[in-house]
User: Which sequence fits this backbone?
């Protein structure tokens, strides 16, 4: 047994932990969990715990039901909101077949496999997402907690206290936060997570969404990561900062380049741009996601890049003075409802395809793309992201890159499940349609 597993066993005994929750996700990114007692912990760490995989979306058929959840001791943390009277801890799990082979439908395994492919070229992938979300009075409507705007200092509403409690809870679980502030929309907030390796960050995003909701619930309100809950207001994104290291060096940085961007960095951006439409169904996986991806609402619509232009899909932020080697890129399409394991996998795969095949980077979009005419954008070779989940799925279905990165099992299930969501959505009659047509047609 390795030292991490020994630490878990010792901590559970010393802190008198009563239950350990084993966490994993289904293909669409919903958290799944079951609890074990300390008496089962050593066996779980050594052999895994069996469970019924046929009950999990995208896992196995009934006749192939038994699977193993193998805890990752590196992810052991106490859950602060469960209190000290009967402490509860959690660990993320890797899912295996009974013969010990990794289960190809496990989203965490999909990301591990793509990170292993990057490491075979001596690359390490780091991410830092900006997590946006809304607070409402309850889950049954969109009654606001505040009417503030971007960076507003609010002193009399409860949202500031909610953010503070959330950050303290995250930090108690070893999750560092870089920024927090009020976002542009009413009752909309943002917490930015400090960069780390992509696997740890995917686990962190899953934890973050649960912590935000638990803190809100404890205070009698509701938090949602729905991309666009309020018509006419700004939607919630998950702008994701990406870094690639080769050994100990930032592979995106070149001190000899005018803007500090290396050949690898330029090719990585070119790969993301080239495959952006193909990966959008995963980075923006709900029908509601495409209510956010519209022009004029600060969400990316046009497939282009720029250094300091927030209307572009990919932005290359200006490094701070004295930190020129901190070059990174910001991919602005994802929203916080995505499955982070799959989204990070595809961002990495698309970028590395550009590096491996030497994609040429198109010229920077220096103007405000939203203010350009369709003709001007066409002349500049600027495409648009898919405008609906249906279009995104059609593009994804033809993508050999997405199929290879996700693997056949996840690729086919994701398409089938998400296509069903679209089919269910398109037969709905909305209040807007009734208001618009019922009295006049």
Assistant:
């Amino acid at each position: 047994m390795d030292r991490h597993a020994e630490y878990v066993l010792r901590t559970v005994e010393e802190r008198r932990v009563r239950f350990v929750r084993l966490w994993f996700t289904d293909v669409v990114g919903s958290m799944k969990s079951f609890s074990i007692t300390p008496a089962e912990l050593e066996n779980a760490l050594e052999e895994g715990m069996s469970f019924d995989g046929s009950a999990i979306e995208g896992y196995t058929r009934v006749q192939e039901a038994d699977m193993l959840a193998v805890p990752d001791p590196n992810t052991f943390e106490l859950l602060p909101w469960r209190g000290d009277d009967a402490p509860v801890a959690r660990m993320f799990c890797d899912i295996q077949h009974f013969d010990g082979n990794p289960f190809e439908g496990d989203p965490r395994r999909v990301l591990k496999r793509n990170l292993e492919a990057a490491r075979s070229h001596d690359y390490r992938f780091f991410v830092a997402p900006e997590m946006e979300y809304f607070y409402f009075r309850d889950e049954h409507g969109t009654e606001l907690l505040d009417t503030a705007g971007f960076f507003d200092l609010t002193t009399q509403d409860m949202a500031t206290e909610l953010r503070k409690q959330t950050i303290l809870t995250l930090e108690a679980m070893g999750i560092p936060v870089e920024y927090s502030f009020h976002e542009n929309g009413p009752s909309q907030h943002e917490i930015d997570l400090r960069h780390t390796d992509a696997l740890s960050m995917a686990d962190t995003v899953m934890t973050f969404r649960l912590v935000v909701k638990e803190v809100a619930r404890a205070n009698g309100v509701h938090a949602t990561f729905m991309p666009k809950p309020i018509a006419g207001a700004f939607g919630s994104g998950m702008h994701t900062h990406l870094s690639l290291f080769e050994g100990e060096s930032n592979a995106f940085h070149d001190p000899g380049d005018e803007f500090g961007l290396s050949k690898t960095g330029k090719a990585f951006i070119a790969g993301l741009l080239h495959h952006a439409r193909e990966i959008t169904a995963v980075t923006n996986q709900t029908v509601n996601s495409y209510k956010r991806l519209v022009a004029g609402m600060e969400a990316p619509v046009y497939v282009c890049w720029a250094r300091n232009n927030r209307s572009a899909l990919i932005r290359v932020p200006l490094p701070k003075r004295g930190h020129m080697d901190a070059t990174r890129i910001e991919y602005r399409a994802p929203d916080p409802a995505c499955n982070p394991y799959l989204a990070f996998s595809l961002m990495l795969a698309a970028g590395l395809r550009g590096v491996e095949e030497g994609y040429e980077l198109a010229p920077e979009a220096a103007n405000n793309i939203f203010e350009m005419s369709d003709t001007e954008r066409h002349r500049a070779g600027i495409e648009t992201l898919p405008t609906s989940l249906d279009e995104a799925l059609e593009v994804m279905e033809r993508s050999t890159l997405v199929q290879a990165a996700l693997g056949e099992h996840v690729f086919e299930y994701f398409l089938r499940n998400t296509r069903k969501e679209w089919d269910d959505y398109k037969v709905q009659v909305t209040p807007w349609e009734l208001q618009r047509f019922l009295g006049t047609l």
Summary: The chain has a mean pLDDT of 91. Residues 198-218 form the longest helix (21 residues). The first strand starts at residue 19 and ends at 25. The chain has two domains: 3-103, 112-432.
